[in-house]
Specification:
280 residues, mainly alpha, 10 helices, 75% helix, 0% strand
Length: 280
């Protein structure tokens, strides 16, 4: 993995990187073959670590395929067509780092990874809720600005000095630029929620709309930001924390049950072995 990152910035395309990739792929392939020989296929695929072994075999096969494609790649169009596929296969090697979460020294890392996957279902509903809020606010803005068109306004729409304040009010022109359609307005609203509510030259859209629409916009904007920032975001945070803690507790109980079951199984096997040895 270290060589992969270095090869992207230094001596890109040098033959030495291909040789190193070939050696690494050979090591991965030998590892799979040795495990299959030592553990036997039944234990390798169906044992306690069967899923991890299948995962390793898939990644090793991916590395071998990538190396073969790199060696077989020619020049010109064929090489350029294979470039995207090779990059995708290299990214798949990152998944091999998932094995590290089984190490006792990386228990905290395993907790973080488990918490992320546990929170995926709440994350879906959070995304849906945010989408609905952003969509509603974008529709309101589009309805407010729908009666004005900036096509007849000459000059740079981001510079108030180039516009006629009577025929082309600056705040309405900016509204058409950044809320000219629903999707564009949704993106602008999302940027404002995250704090990046600026125009291309760096002006604040909030202040532009405040100067143009007056106190009404100020009250609506302040109320909306309080509801979203202090209400919705706090609820989302609480849901994530609760779902993650609940999932981690369930995972800990499952792991404890598995350890107790394995301990009992080993004790029973030792007892059977001692009994057989005594009878002999």
């Amino acid at each position: 993995m270290l060589s992969q990152g270095i090869s992207m910035d230094f001596a890109t395309g040098a033959p030495g990187w291909l040789v190193l990739d070939t050696v690494c792929s050979a090591i991965l392939l030998v590892e799979v073959i040795v495990k299959l020989y030592v553990l036997q296929p039944r234990v390798y695929f169906c044992g306690p670590l069967g899923r991890w072994n299948v995962f390793d075999m898939a990644l090793s096969g991916t590395a071998v395929v990538e190396t073969v494609m790199s060696l077989a790649a020619g020049s010109g169009g064929a090489q350029s067509r294979l470039a995207m596929m090779l990059r995708g296969l290299r990214i798949a090697r990152l998944a091999r780092l998932a094995k590290l979460v089984r190490m006792p020294l990386l228990q905290e890392l395993a907790t973080i990874v488990s918490g992320f996957f546990i929170s995926l279902r709440p994350l879906f509903w959070v995304l849906l809720t945010l989408f609905m809020v952003v969509y509603f606010m974008a529709v309101v803005l589009r309805t407010t600005l729908k009666g004005f068109t900036a096509e007849s306004c000459p000059g740079d729409p981001d510079l108030s000095e180039d516009l006629d304040p009577e025929q082309c009010p600056f705040h309405l022109v900016q509204g058409q630029v950044y809320c000219g359609d629903v999707l564009g307005c949704m993106f602008s609203v999302f940027r404002c929620i995250l704090g990046d509510c600026t125009t291309k030259p760096g002006q604040s859209l909030v202040m532009v709309f405040s100067d143009g629409f007056g106190l009404g916009f100020d009250l609506i904007y302040a109320f909306g930001m309080v509801v979203v920032t202090f209400g919705l975001f706090n609820i989302i945070t609480a849901i994530f924390v609760e779902a993650t803690l609940r999932g981690l507790k369930a995972s800990d109980r499952q792991q404890k049950f598995t350890r107790d079951h394995q301990s009992g199984w080993m004790t029973q096997q030792l007892a059977n072995f001692v009994e057989l040895a005594t009878q002999e």
